[in-house]
């Protein structure tokens, strides 16, 4: 089996004595629901890596999204640690391995960047920050993901924000991009509002700009960003399981990431729910790769 190339051709380690600013790793499976198949999501990390290869030789070129080269004229300071081993339906084992890898990266110290996987992988990813709090959560998603359990599973893709709200090191949650109909019933909306989660719908972002979301993030806060690909409009991100019209644009998302880097500090980032079997001509993987480049460029520019 041929190994997948690393994201943008990044190394898997830096020269001895150099500590990376950010570390990418993949996790194909998290907590899969009984009777469900999450194998399609496990293809996502490699699809993003492959989509990035066209730009691998251009890392030192000018990036108009960032206003300069990816690493701002400095040496490469991000590595791709490949994927950690996961197995479908080994839910407890997958969570333990994702959390352990997150802790390992934070101990370097570096910013962990996780490529999922479905929307269950953020639960152990956020859990890995237990000794690095307080952190805020900025979720970009079409749905609020506040179910307490589904099919008897409390750690599945419908529950990441509910589980995050129970973590003592999570100081607050801002949820951006909601629209249409999802799994949330009135009871989930009430639970999220009772916790104090800030909802910013996609329509609010379209009408008011990214400030509609950024104003809820305290200045100087450490923020973990969790990006569900269905938070973007399916016209540019068709490779998702729950296509919902009216999502955020590519420019809105990269402006939100850049604005967050100036207002606060990105402490971690995950990208989930890319479903390559539903992609069209690789468009979603390419969009995801460009989003990831913007995240890395923003992290590099953080003081």
From TrEMBL:
InterPro entries for this protein: Ureohydrolase, Ureohydrolase_dom_sf
GO terms of biological process kind: putrescine biosynthetic process from arginine, via agmatine
Protein name: Agmatinase
Key words of the record: Hydrolase, Metal-binding
Keyword Metal-binding: yes
Gene Ontology MF: a single term: agmatinase activity
Record family assignment: Belongs to the arginase family.
Domain of life (superkingdom): Bacteria
Entries under PANTHER family matching the protein: ARGINASE/AGMATINASE, GUANIDINO ACID HYDROLASE, MITOCHONDRIAL
């Amino acid at each position: 089996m041929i190994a997948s190339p690393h994201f943008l051709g990044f190394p898997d380690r830096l020269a001895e004595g150099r500590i990376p600013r950010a570390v990418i790793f993949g996790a194909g499976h998290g907590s899969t629901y009984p009777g469900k198949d999450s194998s399609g999501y496990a293809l996502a990390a490699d699809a993003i890596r492959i989509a990035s290869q066209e730009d691998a030789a251009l890392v030192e070129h000018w990036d108009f999204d960032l206003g300069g080269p990816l690493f701002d004229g400095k040496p490469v300071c991000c590595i791709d640690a490949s994927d950690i081993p996961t197995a479908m339906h080994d839910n407890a084992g997958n969570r333990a391995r994702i959390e352990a890898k997150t802790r390992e990266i934070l101990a370097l110290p570096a910013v962990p960047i996780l490529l999922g996987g479905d929307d269950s992988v953020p639960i152990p990813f956020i859990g890995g920050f237990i000794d690095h709090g307080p952190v805020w959560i900025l979720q970009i998603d079409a749905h609020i993901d506040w179910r307490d359990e589904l099919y008897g599973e409390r750690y599945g893709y419908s529950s990441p924000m509910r589980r995050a709200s129970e973590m003592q090191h999570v100081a607050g949650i801002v949820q951006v991009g909601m629209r249409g109909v999802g799994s949330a019933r009135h009871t989930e909306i009430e639970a999220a509002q009772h916790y104090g989660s800030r909802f910013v719908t996609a329509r609010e972002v379209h009408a008011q700009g990214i400030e509609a979301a950024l104003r809820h993030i305290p200045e100087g806060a450490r923020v973990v960003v969790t990006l569900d690909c269905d938070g973007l409009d399916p016209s540019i991100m068709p490779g998702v399981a729950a296509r919902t019209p009216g999502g955020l644009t590519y420019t809105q998302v990269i402006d939100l990431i850049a604005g967050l880097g100036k207002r606060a500090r990105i402490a971690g980032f995950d990208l989930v729910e890319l479903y390559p079997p539903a992609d069209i001509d690789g468009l979603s993987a390419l969009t995801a790769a460009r989003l990831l480049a913007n995240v890395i460029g923003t992290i590099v520019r953080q003081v």
